[in-house]
Amino acid sequence: MKGFADLIDAFAPADGPPPTSLTGFIKWSLSGSWRVMSVSLLTGVAQGVAEVAGAFMLGWVIDDALASDPTHYFAEKWPILLAMAAFFVVLRPVVMGLNAAMTALTIGANLLPLVLSRIHRHTMGQALSFFEDDFAGRISQKQMQVSRAVTDVAMELVNVVSFSLATLAAAFALFGSIDWRLVLALAIWLVVYVFFIRHYLPRIREFSKARAATRAVVTGQVVDTITNIATVKLFARAGREDQAAIDAMQTFRITSIDFGKISTWFRFNLMTLAGFLPVLMIGGSLWIWTKGTASAGDIAMAGLISTRISQMTGWVSFTAIGIFSNIGEIEDGVKTLTVPHLIQDSASAKKIVRAKGDIRFQDVWFNYGKAGSGALNGFSLHVTPGEKVGLVGRSGAGKSTAAAVLLRLYDVADGQIFLDGTDIQDIPQDSLRNQIAMVRQETAMFNRSARDNILYGNPDAGDEAMIAAAIRAEAHDFIIGLKDFKGRTGYEAHLGERGVKLSGGQRQRIALARAILKDAPIMVLDEATSALDSEVEASIQDALTHEMQGRTVIAIAHRLSTIAAMDRIVVMENGRVAEEGSHTLLLAKGGLYAGFWSRQSGGFIGADAAE
Ligand code: ADP
Q1: What atom of ligand 1 comes closest to residue 403's alpha carbon?
Q2: Which among 26, 39, 310, 584 would be 20 to 30 A from 542, CA to CA?
Q3: Which stretches within 296-383 are classed as H helix?
């Protein structure tokens, strides 16, 4: 049995990025499974042919029985009767079983992982701005929606469409053997059916697309509220959030009603149309029988096949609605998911083994894709290997942005950034980011163990190195005291949203341990110790000073005492360098930095600093 499930490699990577067109996207997401799908299609066809063959046998038996002498019937006809019985109890179940296994096991179990893994891989490669411009919940919901819809469409095509088309083709052949007028009647009915479908399905598709879009808005709204639940409570805005959710759901409800109306009409009209088929075929063959050219077996055969097809129309139309609404959902999701990667590795990009750590920003401009004055306005800075630079400036001066563009989380609008003399555009993103250990002010924890969270910095490091890093980041002591809701303790305790709640300072210490473990030639600390109390900070500062040996360091800090001892202090203002020099030199100069220093209270730059 399991062999059927192994016929497709469920995690085969796709060829390049996904095309933005619907058919291109479907081909991309299913590539590698076509051969198996064709085989499944054939089993569907075989099932359809078997259906009609059954009706043919019944007609034949009736005619044959009527023409035979009952006393010797079984004695004479047993071989052919046995063969027919074998068809019903052996061959037909085998064909159907094969089709079921191909549909449920081969296709059903593999296509969703195949499509989802491809989409997810593409999504992970998106630039940071892609995620900042959308809701996390909406993106993941679209991923699921599209993968499920592609899987369903493929399954339905293979299962239902092949089966029904094969049934129809065989029915035509069979009616042809009775009388050409039956063929004509079926053909006319079929033409009406096709026109009917063509009238309804595009509308159903539109309504389904609208419904999918409004459903995504509901998810986005709900996830946004839950993500920010603390703020909702602090401002006592649950009522407002509830109303916003209700508004979104109301819109969803309206699009669902529209969809429901059209699909109800569709089904009702279709059933009426389906009702005509047995009337036409049985009536027609009766009429032909009165003319003497059809037999009783022919009438039975026509009756059986037309009622089968008539029943099938309900089922096929249901599937057709499913297929078209799924196509609507795929179209809706494809818009979001196939966006080309904004930041790409150039074909000629060369990996770096270990950087020396020479960093040069050269007249860099960047504005987060917005018009007007930017976050970086001609920012230039040269940091030599092993140099430790402290970056200060008012909030919004562009310090974090400078760090972000160095890691190529965004591509600069103008100017260049060089690492060891190579433009970072010519370095693969992963290779570039491997050279830099960055600690940001806010680090969310993965919903994994403390060990896994620290080892994220270097999954190959052993426990010994991991614990050493934790000790240096002053994290070891509190980690061994952790206990999560499942009773896991110490390094096994799970962190993150659904794990142990850590304070901002504890999260920063884990983030530091992770960065220490990474052992990169460059360290970027963006308010890395801002959430620690002065005592812990002082002792971490010693560890950090030790870690900084032999590395290039850029440290952003509001608390000036933490960077006063750096080799050089760079003051940013309006996205460019305003002043630079050593702590003493800048104090003597009496400019912005001296202002910050004299006005900082308790070591922080005051809100009104240097004004
Ligand atoms: P700093 O780190 O010095 O406080 P930032 O680099 O965070 O300053 O911000 C510089 C400017 O860029 C600010 O005007 C800020 O509003 C803007 N900015 C920062 N991050 C984003 C973002 N993700 N999207 C759009 N604008 C941003």
Answers
A1: 6
A2: 584
A3: 296-337
